Each structure stands twice: as C-alpha cells, then as structure tokens.
Amino acid sequence: MKTSHVRTATFGGMVPEWLRPSSAQRAFLCAAALLALPAATAFAPDAAARGLRDVLATTYLTSPRLDGSFRQLRAVEENIAIACGGYRPSLIVQGTSGYTDFSFEQGQQDRSDNLQTSEISLSLEQNIYRGGRTEATVRSARHQTEREKAVFDFTASDLLFDGVTVYANLLRDQKVLDAAGGNVTRLEEQLVATGKRRRVGEATRTDSSQAEARLAQARADLAQAQANYQGSVADFRAVVGEAPVDLEAVEPTVPAETLERALELVDNNYEVVAAIAQVARADADIDASTADLLPRLDAVAALEYSDDPTVLIDRQRDARVQLQLRVPLYQGGGEHAAVRQSKQVRIQRRNQLENLRRDVTDRITRGFRQWQAAEWRVQQLTLQVEANRAALDGVEREVVGGTRLILDELDAQQELFNSQVALESALRDRVVNAYSVLAETGQLTPQALNLEGTGDDMRGRIMASTNCRILDIGTGIGENPESR
Q1: pLDDT tens digits for 63-99?
Q2: For the chain, how many structural domains are there in total?
Q3: What is the value of pTM for the model shown?
Q4: Given strand 296-307, what is the order of strands in its sheet?
C-alpha cells in the first residue's frame, strides 16, 4: 500500500478544548494530507527507482524540442546539395507540335496550305568559370551546416541541463517536504506535551502560545513545501515527458580539476562553435559577392530537329556548340555594395565571437566558483544538521529536567528544520552548478554521460556529402523524412 511521506498526527489523550485545532485548522490539516498524496504516489516504495542517467536518456530520446532542432539541421544540410548544383551541367529536352493553316494570293489566284510542324531539341549547358562563386557558395553552405550542427548540439546540451535541473529540484523539494512534514508532526507532539505540563503546573499559558505559534509557522512551511514540490513535479513532466517515480540521489560530479582547465575549453562551448562557423561563412560570402564582379564563361551545346518547319523545308536538323563569355563592364554599383556589405558582416561576426567568448568565460567562472561554494556549504551544513539534531535531543532532555525552557526546545527544533532545508538547497546547487560548467564547456553530451540507448542515435550527425559529385541523379523527393 502506498503511503505518504508526510505524516499527520492527532492529539492523543485528554486535551483541553483550547488546545484542540479549530474547524479551520482541521480543514487545513485534511487539505495538507490530501495534497501530500501525489508525493506518495510519485515516490512510492514499490516503484522502481530511477537514476539521473536513466532520466536524461529518456529526456534526450523523446524530446520534441530536440527533434525539431534535428529537422532544422536536415533542412539546412540541403543547402550543400543546392550549392553543389553549380558544378553540374543542365540537360534539357524540349518538344513542340503545332498545326498552321494559312492562305495567300499568288498572281490572280488564291492559294491555301497548312503545316503540321513538330520540333524537338536537346540542350546542354555547363558553367566553366563564374569567378569562384560556386566554390564560395559551397563553402558558405558547409559552414552554415556546421553552425546548425552546433545549434543542435547546444539544444541537446541545454535539454540535458534542464533534465538535471528538474531532477535536482525535485529531489530537493521532496526532501524539504519530508522535513516540513516531520517538523509539523514534532511540533504537534510538542504542543500536546506542553498542554500536559501546563495541567500539572510545569508550563504557562505563554509556553502554550509559543508552541501554537511555532506549529502555525510549521504548517505554513508545509503548505509552501507542498506547493514547491507540485511545481517541481510539473516541471519534471514538461522536460522529461513522464511522471516522476522514486529518484536516486545524485553522486557528486567534478566538472574540472581547476578553473584554469575549465577555461581552456571555452572554444568547445557550442555557442562559440556556432559563432566560429558564422565567421567562416562570412568569409565565404565575401568571395561569393566578389565573384559577381568577374567574367563568366559557359559552354552550350544543342541538337534540334524540326519536321515540316516551313512550306519550303520538309525537315531540318541543327547542331551547335558555343562558348558564351560574359564580362561585366558596368553594373550600376549594386555588386560592389554587396561586397562592402559582406565585409562589414564579417567584422560584425568576429566582434560577436569575441564578445561571446567573454560571456562564456564569465559563465564558466561563475559556475565553477558557485560549484566550489556549494561543495563547501554541503560539508558545513551536514555538520550543522548533525549538531542541531544532537542539540535538540539534549535540549529535550534538559526541558524534562527543568533546566531549559520550552522556548529553547522550540528554537532548537526550528534551527534543525532550517538547517535541513539549507542542506537540501546546497545539495541541489552542487549538482546544478557542476553540470552547468559541463554544459558551458561542451561536455554535457549523451556520449560523455554514456546514456543508455543513445549510441545508435544518428541525430546531430551531418549526413550531407563533404564532396560535390559530378553527377547527382537521385532526387530524394520521395523519401520518408522520418527515416533520416
């Protein structure tokens, strides 16, 4: 049977009326118990526990966001094939058939005749020189594809980081919810004990009021913890695509040996990789624009056959081979403006790359320092929780012995709860900050994490040929895009 991690206690024994929960308080307790049911369902003891790698593999393989980026990559890849078309000849066959009825005067006689004309032609055109435009266009398309590949990798890394974040958030909020429930239970028991002491003259009305106040605060903390937990469950569903089950604790991860080692990997950041490809593409675009200022040479061959083209000719066959040279003398200035424009774009892309390197350096530094701080906080807060737990046990015994006030026990209980919440937040920060450094340095990949089921995943691999074939007969139009 599935039970909630949040326990609700009832006041036992003979409790004075003024100590019993009001109807509003009883309604709140019922509502809190009902709200806690989803936590019990999601983290039931009989459910199979899932580790972080398992959750990330599911996230990676089923994400529609990642598949959308993959389709965008495939679409951009086709620009390489489009650009390679400039190397290849065009072969066109054309045929016409027509009927002509005409009449004319010849001397004093009216004459009429008709023609049934049929024509067929075969033309071949091959570019020989375009000023290097085809080569530049192919380079530009390849760099554009490299950029889109980096965008896909960034999307995958960002998705995995989101998976880590929702996983760590859910673990934190579940632990905080457990602590909040335990805090409420303990303070309920404390309120009952205070009432008993008051009946025998060992406590005052003030002691009871203080216990009631702390219990009210604990119930408010429980309500907030439940809301935070439900929000994390919703975030988990949105990113992973599945409801959470019992999650395993995350083992500590070291993102880099030193900050200097992490900063050496700035150019592995996928945003930087994309920006580098953009700079290379801008260089190719300058060459493509410059080509419009240079001559163009094409070879043209044609075969034509006509049947009954005129009244005087029954059949006609033509064959010709030509070289067509086009030399621009004056073009209105538009082509020169395009060259200047491309050069300005290159400068802009280089500046963007340098600025991005600075931003990534800043993010890596911040993430690494935050991870170091979280590591230290986890160590110290673990000691604090242990010390607060021992202090609470000691204060409870001293209250029974009459050497401590009830307020001291309430304070010790609150300090324990606060340190438990702080520890869970630090554990979450340690995980998230470590993986943020991995993401910023290009190391948060399915391959690096060894995620199960992702080894045969072809998404993100550039499928277009790196070389332009002389002839490309296949069209691929009839292929199922889901198969690529």
Answers
A1: 999 999 999 999 999 999 999 999 999 999 998 888 8
A2: 2
A3: 0.82
A4: 90-106, 109-129, 296-307, 315-326
